[in-house]
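Retro notes (design track)

What went well: tokenization of the new backbones is finally stable.
What didn't: we kept losing track of which sequence belonged to which structure.
Fix going forward: every design gets posted as structure first, then sequence, in one message. First example under the new rule, 203 residues:
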């Protein structure tokens, strides 16, 4: 058995590993010690959320994040929230040692993989920008466009953007492109490093 406590507002107040189950919860401040005592003497408590070891699929510890990600069941995800880096490492290392039939891996993202999403976002923004700018210019030259259909398509959105004028289209998409560019720079400068405990299915 192992129990971790935290008084940090954004943390889970209690994280524990007991009876082949990961527990987490945020009871009221005056109930924390009572629940910890119950766990210590082996008493079951309904105040915490439990993830049985047999349901575990993967436990991920991403450098720089304030949580440990737990994948379990068919497609369920739970987060063990811990701001303290040393405590997060301690919890991960404990689970790595305690959970049988598992293997440890480190996934290091390449710069391309780390920046792939913002790169695609930039490409998408650029396509929309060219389309909206063309339509804005056409509207300013006296051409009129009418939406056919439900009015919920991407064409409707682009036409609505085009209606604000070429200057505003340039300013709007310039800001969006800069945001995506900053995201690309940030992600490629610090590619993800994820420590993983992968639980092998029992045959």
């Amino acid at each position: 058995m192992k129990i971790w406590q935290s008084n940090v507002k954004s943390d889970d107040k209690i994280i524990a590993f007991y009876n082949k189950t990961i527990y987490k919860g945020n009871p009221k401040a005056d109930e924390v010690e009572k629940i910890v005592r119950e766990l210590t003497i082996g008493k079951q408590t309904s105040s915490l959320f439990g993830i049985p070891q047999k349901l575990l699929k993967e436990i991920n510890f991403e450098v720089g994040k304030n949580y440990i990600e737990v994948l379990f069941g068919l497609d369920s995800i739970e987060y063990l929230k811990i701001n303290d880096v040393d405590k997060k490492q301690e919890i991960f290392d404990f689970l790595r040692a305690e959970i049988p039939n598992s293997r440890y891996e480190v996934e290091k993202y390449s710069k391309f993989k780390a920046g792939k999403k913002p790169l695609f976002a930039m490409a998408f923004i650029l396509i929309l920008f060219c389309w909206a700018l063309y339509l804005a210019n056409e509207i300013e030259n006296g051409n009129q466009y009418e939406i056919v259909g439900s009015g919920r398509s991407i064409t409707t959105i682009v036409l609505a953007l085009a209606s604000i004028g070429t200057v505003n289209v340039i300013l709007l998409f310039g800001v969006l492109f800069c945001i995506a560019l900053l995201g690309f720079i940030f992600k490629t400068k610090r590619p993800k490093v994820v420590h993983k405990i992968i639980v092998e299915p029992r045959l």
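Added context from the reviewer: The helical segments are 32-40, 85-98, 111-140, 154-162, 166-189.
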